[in-house]
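Researcher: For the record, we're logging two predictions in this thread. I'll number them. Prediction 1 follows.
Model: Prediction 1, sequence and structure:
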Amino acid sequence: MNRIDRTFRALRERREKALIPFLTAGDPDLGITRELIRAVEDNGADILEIGVPFSDPTSDGPVIQRSAEIALGAGSSLPRVLEMVSDVRVSSNLPIVLYGYYNPIFRYGGERFARDAAAAGIDAVLVVDLPPEEVEELLPWLRAKGIHFIFLLAPTSDESRVRMVLRKASGFIYYVAVTGVTGGAAVQPSSVRPVIDALRLQTDLPIGVGFGISSPGEAAAVAEFADAAVVGSAIMRIIDQHRGTARVVPEVGAFVRSLKDGILAVRGA
């Protein structure tokens, strides 16, 4: 069983919701990213989203754009990220979602990418600019290796798009709570909850909510109705504030712990 499936099953048995933090691989460098992965795992992360830096991250706001620029400048790349994940797998069983854009994967080659991602220990892939209408050029290679493809749904997704995604999805559904780029407006749980409730009538897959979650209170509010809270830009802001200091890893760890404590406060909701 895929680590993601196993994790959600265990969380469901404990009546608990998942925390999915995001880190850019290579910010400030890949060595520190390894330390950050250990810190988020030790402080309550249930699944980790690792961003592969890309030169034109059109779906990301200024915080993650800056992070990607720094990571690229430090030599991070898709092959080096896969190598880092392979190293992490020596001591960690934390489920990992590889987040990125399609260009590096296309250049790498779909079949080769799926093979190497599986060998490294990647559990799922989220390609933000590969829509469900075009995913078949990559999806069969991933499925053959037991890797989930995580699809995005958003407030702008019409019924035909929702049906198409639910037919192809596995692992979990990622619902984008706020239109626009990452790190923008704050999530409005009261407006998101009815959408998640409606999706539950159409799928048994877990549903994660991301974009706009930046505090333990917001993570807890989302955890009242969703299966997971995804937090990215808020974590990357902390890295931006402490980059180059000895505080960066402990500060991220402490923030992740506060997010998980907020989610645990609504256990069973």
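Researcher: Logged. Prediction 2.
Model: Prediction 2, sequence and structure:
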Amino acid sequence: MHTSTSAPSLPQVLVVGGGIAGLAAAARLSGADGSTPTARVTLVEAGPRLGGKLYASELEGIPVDLGAESFLARRPEALALARAVGLGGALQPPATAKAAIWTRGGLRPMPGGHLMGVPWDLDALAASGVVSAEGLARIAEDRTMPATEVGDDVSVGDYVAARLGPEVVDRLVEPLLGGVYAGHAHNISMRAAVPQLLAVAQRSGSLVEGVRELLAAVPANPAPVFNGIDGGIGRLPVAVAAACRAAGAELRTGTPVRALRRTPDGWRCLVGDEELAADAVVLAVPAPAAAALLAASSPTAAAELAEVEYASMALVTLAFRRSELGELNGSGFLVPPVDGRNVKASTFSSNKWRWLAEAAPDSFVLRTSVGRHREDQDLDLDDADLVARSLGDLRAAAGITAVPFAGTVTRWRGGLPQYPVGHLDRVARIEKLVAELPGLALCGAAFQGVGIPACIASAWRAADLVQGALRTEGTMNA
């Protein structure tokens, strides 16, 4: 295994997985993010590139993101990492956050005054036309209903439907949650996905009034809610990888791991016919891959990890001649599953990102997303069929009749972990079992959040855990 000559006394840590979580862990351990170096790092990634679901590419010379396109800016982790690897000047908020919902036969404005689709401003909701008169009357019953018992956890869809009726779930909560998890509101844990809403549910009678009070108590924050990066979010893992290499870390792609075992001196990782030795290991891989690697060392933890389900989805990215399009406003639209469309959302990327509009002023890039948890059959269609279905929906929703001059389909199979009721209890059990294996830590989207900042936070926590274990074992210098 490669060792850095700059710090020969530091322990060796192996990071398995080269997505943003693995890269963030490698950066923290090697000091590439500006922290104090605490280990010599080797990172191995099974695939041909680093970055995981963050993937910057080009479409006929136009820079595009073929994976995640933004991150939550109200959390500090992604901002801090981007700045640490030299991308601070490239951070850019969306040029517009004005989204629509394609439902009831047209594009309707996303109503303001809600928390993940749970409304408090019923006037704005009524004006949007998203919910019917009957649905609005059902919401009004929330104020006089007795409190609904929720316990420690409940599905978002079940609770909101019980308080406000099914229309709010079908037309608002489902498309918003589906955009984050590619899942279904009736299967998603409130405690894991929207914990602030659970706090409201546990103390309030009226859900509408509880959400109103919660949001009224939040101080005004002029900072953008989301941020992108000039040239694409996919630049972030590239920059982190470069910083890791500059700090002495070794990063290998095309390096699948076959087995992992604990030894008296640390850990051994079998890569092909080669055995890599390490004092500690960070597993930054999806739950099924972690389960396979831990089957021998901790069968119970492996069994828990194997229970984590994933959703698959596809992104259809299309480029049009601007002169051939009519006027397209806003950042795009969401689609309630109840409407039975092919796509679940569309992003008008050239409207949303100033850097993209400037890079290709004569073109207009947009993308659609297809697929939800246990509804991924469309991903088996060929690219031409997925593009045709997307174009059909774009024509019906936004009147787009132009033919794109370029397009690509990106399939993310097993891309998004699902957070059902009880998910955080499972995570706690896994972490307790893994803590019994000295010098091992897990991180990634399967645990404490699927967003980029949450993945980075989990990576930093994993780095802290292995650093603590190495100090306890006396491997790391004080």
